[in-house]
Amino acid sequence: MNGLWLVADREIRTRIRTKGFLISLALSALLVVALAFVPKLLGGQDAYEVAAVGTVPVAAEDVKYTNYPSEAEARKAVADGKADAALIDDQKVVSEGELDQRLGLLLESAHREGKIKASGLVITPLQVETGATAQYQSVRTGIATLLVMVLFFLLIYSSMYVAMGVVEEKGSRIVEILLAAVRPWQLLGGKIVGLGLLGLLNLAVVIGGGLIAASATGLAADFPPGMSGIVISTVVWFVLGYAFFSALAAAFGSLVSRQEEVNSVLTPMTMLMTLTYLVAYFAAVEPEGTLARILSVVPPFSSMVMPVRTAAADVSIAEIVLSAGLMVVAVVAVLFAGARVYNRAVVRTGARVKLTEVLR
Amino acid sequence: MLEVQDLRKRFGDKVALDGVGFAVQPGEMFGFVGANGAGKTTTMRIVMGVLDADSGEVRLDGAPLTYDARRRFGYMPEERGLYQKMKVAEQVEYFGRLHGLGRAAARDAAGELIERLGLAERRDDAVEALSLGNQQRVQLAVALVHSPAVLVLDEPFSGLDPIAVDALAEVLKDRCSSGVPVVFSSHQLELVEQLCDSVGIIAGGRMVAVGAVDELRDTEGRTLLKLVVRGAAPGWADGLSGEVTTDGDRQVLLVESGDDQEILRSAMRAGEVEHFGRQRPTLAEIFREAVA
Fold it and tell me: What are the coiled-coil residue ranges (chain B) (predicted)?
């Protein structure tokens, strides 16, 4: 065990000092923080500025009236961009270019309400009541979509580094000296654990950054209940997914001796991950679709689809337990098979080793 | 004592090792020589557990070599391998710790070796910034940092300048005299002859000669009689079976067989005898003959 921690320790120390790691850490944090600010920016103006001349109409929500003495001055304010539109004597609306649709509706309804009120009729507006789930639906979909990207990015990035590390040691034959001092499972396990911890650190920065930014922008108020559950499930599924894909990456990586060959030998794995990503993306948009429901139980798709589904909709505990159980089984199987391939292939330098040769 | 017994290994149809065996005593330096592709590296990789033999065994002090015993070996593979981006001292220390040294012990051992191998000024440089010769010194430090119980070095001298060769030879002699069996392969036969107590010559996966250097020189190869005569008239040795070469007014006769006393007498009649004696073959000569 000691050997495993020594290897993990070296992986962390070496990697954490590189510019690449620090940059990716900063970039991913920045991205999430920026995304937290997007709704605020897209939400547009809080209130419309309307230049009013003559009769001031009935007050409307999100509309601020400023009185101008003459029509000419009100028109000038619109032309200068000081006002979004001008309302002349509560009869005519003037705007520069096309009138903002929402502003148009607001002015129209305020105008109508004023006229109705003047005629002495009283209308009680419709009351709208939504279910608890539906209330948060758009936020949940947003969080789920963000999760897909973060999980995909971190999984593929961390697994890639495992494969590159394996090839570095194999290609330079350091592995021969290393294996004289530690067992293959310690070397492989240390690499997976070390780079995995860095992946978790990156995930923590993304989640932490996102939460802090969300509470700073007031977005957190829209968070659905059970947010901590979503965070925990994300971390757990990341660990499971990472264990699966990194073991796969190590096994494929150990087949080749040169870094230039890493990409081609990893193609089956990256294709599987991309497929998982696409499915998870659809699951974020349509969490209750048949495809999403089935694949959220099938490993390794479940590693990305399930956390996304739980973020986007309510999933029954039974489904989650079944899905996690199957994923654990798959992870154990891949770890054993991967370790077997690695053990046999990692000292066979030279030409690319065939998978069938080492699996027998 | 490190014993290699009857190792056999095939790669597909090619027989790489066909019954390789030798033994190295504690405190003995064993030179492993052979042409390229003869099986030296394969043998060493099997000793280090990098490869498995098809049959045969490696034993240490009479018992089959276990993983834990092997962890106390020091190994320098033929193809040098270091983490290129890791600093020199950090790297040597890391390998010390992998071999089971504590943090402080690993740091001390690494520092001492780096000093001794003349790398003190480069200790905080990344390995990739070092010359190949210096990288080789780091490689050696990695093999030695945990005070190994057995040293297995594949071509440790290749690519080193004469000063580095001397430094490395000193370190090896030092380790050897403290009772560590040392096995190394080399193509520099003069060096092997000068350093090693015993040698093994391998050709085509078989050991063709194994033994103490002195014994081999006595028993293997042709022992020639060498005679140097000054001022002899040309043709004095016409009756003798041998080669005569002229070097100024000296004539040198090399004879493989014949009555040495008779030859001496005819030489004394012909001129002034300056040298008369058996000339033992050098290791290089034994090697060429054994491998041919």
Answer: none
Choose among B27, B139, B37: nearest CA to B80: B139
CA geometry: angle B118, B119, B125, nearest 5 deg: 165
Residue with tokens 């947003």: A142
Half-sphere exposure of A343 (CA within 13 A, CB side): 16
Q: What is the pLDDT of residues A202-228, one digit of tens each?
A: 999 988 888 888 888 777 777 777 778
B147-184: pLDDT as tens digits: 999 999 999 988 888 888 888 899 899 999 999 999 99
pLDDT tens, residue by residue, A20-44: 889 988 888 888 888 777 766 655 5
Query: Smallest Cβ distance to A173: which of B81, B84, B95?
Result: B81
pLDDT tens digits, one per residue of A233-263? 889 999 999 999 999 999 999 998 888 888 8
- Contact residues of B toward A, CB < 8 A: 45, 48-51, 67, 70-71, 73, 75-77, 79-86, 94-95, 97-100, 142-143
Dist CA A224 CA A222 (whole Å): 6
Chain B residue numbers touching A178 (CB-CB < 8 A): 98
Q: In chain B, at which residue ranges do the beta strands (DSSP E only) sit?
A: 2-11, 14-24, 29-34, 55-60, 63-64, 73-76, 150-153, 182-185, 198-203, 206-212, 224-230, 242-247, 250-255, 272-279
User: What pLDDT does B148 receive?
Assistant: 92
* Contact assessment for residue B116 and residue B172, using Cβ atoms and an 8 Å cutoff: no
Mutate to test the interface with A, among B46, B48, B50 (most CBs of A within 10 A): B50
Q: Touching check for A216 and chain B: CB below 8 Å?
A: no
Task: Look up residue A259 and give its DSSP letter.
Answer: G
How many CB atoms are closer than 10 A to CB A328? Answer: 14
Q: How many residues does chain B have?
A: 292
Task: Search chain B and give the residue with CA nearest A176.
Answer: B50
CATH code for B223-280?
3.30.70
For domain B2-218, give the fold.
Rossmann fold (3.40.50)
Contact B77 A173 (CB under 8 A): yes
- pLDDT for the residue numbered A133: 55
What is the identity of the amino acid at A65?
Answer: Y
Could you tell me the residue ranges of all domains in chain A? 10-39+136-359, 48-119
pTM of the model: 0.77
Predicted local confidence at residue A226, as pLDDT: 75
* CA dist., res. B89 & res. B125, Å (int): 8
Q: Show me where the domains of chain B are located.
A: 2-218, 223-280
Phi-psi bin for A120: left (phi > 0), alpha (psi -120 to 50), beta? left
